[in-house]
Amino acid sequence: MRPKISIIGTGGVGSTLAFNVLSKLNIEELVLVDVNSGLAKGVALDLEDTRGMLDFSAKISAGNKFSLIKNSDVVVLTAGIARKKGMSRLDLFKINTSIAKKISEKIKKLSPNCMIVVITNPLDIITYTVTKYTKFPRHRVMGMGSSLDTSRLLNILYNKTKISPSSIEGFVFGFHNKNMFVKTSRMRIQGLKLSSYLKTKEIKDIEKKVQMRGAEIVSLLKTKSANFSPALACFNLLKAILCDEGRIIPLSVLLKGEYGVNGVCLGVPCLVNRKGVAEIIDIGLTAAEKRKVEKTKEILKNV
Question: Which residues are registered as beta bridge partners of 63?
């Protein structure tokens, strides 16, 4: 049986994701929901007009009514205001958390058996909010932040070394904001440690670039934020779920003792298949990294 995918929020990320889904996945129905009904319907018509070129058979439904998402297999949450220049992800907390609470109630009522992928920022806090208010088991609620940060890391490393990302092993851990950190001790290029290719200062500079990449993009786009890379990171996650790929992807998920942490959504490596998060892979943290994780508890305690 082909799946039904619903995307809530049809701005740049939502519409780009929708195109990738239609062009690369065999689905029964694609639903686009936005508070701006005209935007959702306009995007839907534009996507429908690619049918003759992409040759898909999926039904496309769109509007501002949440009833459209009923019985979805996967719901993607991109709704919320975008981060603007000078605004941190935590500045988005109050507005986007309120939006996420209301949407969580709708999802719980209309699609109680679905999986949820969160893209809305501040990502880890919104992922926690959705997990809390849907009361879904944690393996069915995933935030895609760390997979995007890891893609940014691989790109920055490529530009520094000119070595293909396919030859680089590593990931970004933690919060999807400037407090994220790169597990440089675990990174390998063709099996060799990163220090075999780069000096210590160069490695630290790369980590800093990864941490500030989102803010850099926002400062250049002014009134917009990143579009293509978040959408593709989410698509890869959807594909891993729907195609039962068994891929290891760094995702934000509610921790229950892993890494010595309880009650916090944090970006960690996860085994992803048709079950959603089939396993959280605990690779261990240094003392300094553990201290960074502890800070998240203070941020989330009043959510």
Answer: 33
Q: Which of 144, 164, 167, 151 is nearest to 267 (CA)?
A: 144
Query: How far is residue 254's CA from residue 269's CA, in Å, rounded to a whole number?
Result: 12
> For the chain, first and last CA: distance in Å?
38
Whether the CA torsion 176, 258, 250, 208 is positive or negative: it is positive
For residues 114 and 72, the answer to whether their CB atoms sit within 8 Å is yes
The set of catalytic residues is 176
Distance CA 149, CA 123 (A): 12
Which amino acid is present at 215?
A
pTM of the model: 0.92
Q: Please report, in tens digits, the pLDDT of each residue of the chain (303 residues total).
A: 899 999 999 999 999 999 999 999 999 999 999 999 999 999 999 999 999 999 999 999 999 999 999 999 999 999 987 766 666 656 777 888 989 999 999 999 999 999 999 999 889 999 999 999 999 999 999 999 889 999 999 999 999 999 999 999 888 887 787 778 787 878 899 889 998 999 999 999 998 999 899 889 988 998 888 899 999 999 999 999 999 999 999 999 999 989 888 888 989 999 999 999 999 998 877 787 777 777 666 665 555
Cβ(253)–Cβ(174) below 8 Å: no
Residue 159 burial class via C-beta count within 10 angstroms: exposed 0-12, middle 13-18, buried 19 and up: exposed
Q: Cβ distance 68 to 10 under 8 Å?
A: no
